[in-house]
Design a protein that fits this description.
Helices cover 24% and strands 20% of the residues. It is built from 7 helices and 16 strands. The radius of gyration is 23 Å and the shape is elongated.
């Protein structure tokens, strides 16, 4: 059984290696394609970023360097950009309340090709970022397609900018999540305007602003998604929604741990199980939070939460490196049947019960 479980751990690590790590928080690279020098000079965009690189040319005519936004402050120059578009256009009827949002939306590149380089040198260690494209062109019903490293999304344009940044087929934003490429090529087809763009390396985990990333922040994010809020500070994974995926992003990115680690000490082990069962919420039907066993977002603590935790492959801090496995491709026959997983769960629960009595 141990060998089977080890293989499953390796499979999970291979599948989730790029989703579980981000080294720094609050870093972004923001670019505004501003016609007629209509430059952003304050908070703008869905996440109110402060530091913007403003350009007003149809073509970069060579590589241009970009400054960073680091928690709102201007950072050192690292990434580079070059682009080519059919034209650069300006919308004269866009006058939103936020003057800088207006500057972001009014100018756009018409169906450009954009290349970003050096995105892996913004933060130390493995990178995980989201690419946000602002895509309002004021041409009702016009269809455009946006492609990044083989992934594509289509969008239908709207005539009016309603002072909201929204994702979706008829929205004014296109978001590509969970990217980890050093260089990006953004290609467009049809009528595919790009007003501005942000590369965002995650959000700060300290949502309550007390200077510490801890369980109080996690509880606040839990409550936020259950209450249906849409405040950007809770959108940890940058998909413009506030939901249980943000809880998981906080666990994996902001705190750097995994499912099952209820005491947030960086490992899921028998101490977490003991703490859980002392709370008495297992299969009780009562409401549960992260620290009392709800790891799948259904507000209960039951066997489905435990199965999810062990499938994640973090119990007792087990780490199986790909080079230590017999093969990077794990054979289907090596994956345990449900009965095996249940037996594993039963054994671990028994261990927790024994330690609790001791």
């Amino acid at each position: 059984m141990l060998r089977i479980f080890t293989v499953v751990l390796g499979l999970v690590l291979l599948l989730f290696a790029n989703n579980a790590n981000a080294s720094n928080y609050g870093y972004s690279v923001n670019v505004n394609f501003a016609a007629n020098g209509d430059f952003i000079s304050g908070p703008a965009g869905r996440f109110s970023e402060l530091t913007w690189n403003n350009f007003n040319e149809t073509s970069s005519q060579g590589t241009r360097r970009l400054v960073l936004d680091i928690f709102g402050d201007q950072g050192q120059v690292i990434p580079q950009i070059n682009w080519q578009a059919r034209s650069q256009q300006i919308l004269t009827d866009v006058k939103p309340t936020n003057i800088n949002d207006g500057r972001l939306i009014r100018g756009f590149l018409d169906t450009p090709t954009i290349i970003l380089e050096g995105l892996d040198r913004v933060v130390e260690g493995p990178v995980n970022y989201a690419l946000i494209l602002y895509t309002h062109g004021g041409r009702e019903g016009a269809v455009g397609k946006y492609s990044v490293q083989g992934a594509s999304q289509s969008r239908i344009d709207n005539q009016v900018f309603a002072e909201k940044f929204q994702v979706g087929p008829r929205g004014n934003m296109v978001v590509f999540e969970d990217l980890n490429f050093a260089d990006l090529v953004i290609q467009t087809e049809g009528f595919a305007p790009i007003n501005a763009m942000s590369v965002m390396y995650c959000r700060p985990g300290d949502v309550n602003g007390d200077g510490v990333v801890d369980v109080s922040d996690l509880d606040e994010i839990n409550e936020a998604f259950k209450d249906g809020t849409s405040k950007p500070r809770y959108d940890i994974n940058l998909d413009t929604n506030v939901d249980f995926n943000d809880v998981m992003a906080w666990i994996k990115w902001s705190k750097g741990t995994c499912i099952g680690d209820v005491n947030l000490d960086g490992v899921f082990d028998s101490d977490d199980l003991i703490q859980l069962f002392q709370k008495g919420t297992y299969e009780s039907g009562g409401l549960a939070t992260w620290t009392s066993g709800d790891w799948n977002g259904d507000c209960k603590f039951d066997s489905s939460d435990l199965l999810l935790a062990f499938q994640e492959g973090c119990y007792e801090g087990g780490v199986v490196k790909a080079e230590d496995m017999e093969s990077n491709a794990v054979k289907a026959e090596s994956v345990p049947e449900p009965a095996t997983a249940t037996l594993l769960l039963t054994s671990l629960l028994a261990l927790a019960a024994v330690r609790r009595r001791a």
